[in-house]
Amino acid sequence: MMGFPTAMHHVVVLQALLLITMCDWGNANHINFYNIIPPVDATPFPKSFKCFTCEHASDNYSCNRWAEDKWCPQNTSFCMTVHRFTGPGNSISVTKRCAVTEDCHAAGCRHHRDSGYTECVSCCEGMACNVEVPTNHSNAVFAMRRAPSGSASPLPSRRVSFLLVSLSMALVLL
Predict the structure, then answer these.
(1) What's the pLDDT at 18?
(2) 124 and 164 housed in the same domain
(3) Please, which contacts does 146-151 make with residues 24 or more away whose CB atoms are closer than 8 Å?
(4) Please, which residues bridge with residue 50 across strands?
């Protein structure tokens, strides 16, 4: 049978692991924009979606961090991103919005010699798919999803996995 001091030690270890995990959830510097969970409220129409939206944000992080959370209009099908920059990591502005097919024909990169900046445009299809900014011809594309092939459940996030591993380890120690 386990003694009282040993049992208390295990409880303290478990509490410390939980505290570390919970503290990490509130850290605004490590926001995971890829872990967007679809809203549970009613959608305004079938196949509705949301995009990250901003006008002339200073960089991608600022755009995503303060993006307005609203449904795209019914006549739109894509999320569009326009990224103006002078070099790697030197954004001038980031604009993200909902878009129609015709808007997305501008996908690609163009260098403006007179102004000294490059403008890359990308479009994607899906809930908040415009997380990243285009930076070159490889990712400044008009990307459309394929038809869904099944209803595979999404993988759990790293935080949930860490919590489960931590709890499992703590239970083994007990």
Answers:
(1) 46
(2) no
(3) none
(4) 71
State which residues form the domain around 59: 48-143
- Helices (H), ranges, 26-157: 60-65
Q: What's the confidence (pLDDT) of residue 154?
A: 47
- How would you class 120 by CB atoms within 10 Å of its CB: exposed for 0-12, middle for 13-18, buried for 19 or more? buried
State residue 148's pLDDT score. 44
Which parts of the chain have pLDDT scores under 50? 16-28, 148-155, 172
**37-51 pLDDT tens trace:** 655 667 888 989 999
* Bridge partners (DSSP) listed for residue 57: 94
Rounded (to 5) percent helix, strand, coil in the chain:
30, 25, 45
pLDDT at 112: 94
Q: What is the CATH number of the domain that holds 107?
A: 2.10.60.10
Give the other-Cβ count within 10 Å of 77's Cβ: 16
115, 92 in Cβ contact below 8 A? no
Give the global pTM.
0.63
Number of domains into which the chain is organized: 2
Query: Residue 64: exposed, middle, or buried by beta-carbon count in 10 A (0-12, 13-18, 19+)?
Result: buried
Amino acid at 113: R
Side chain identity, residue 124? C
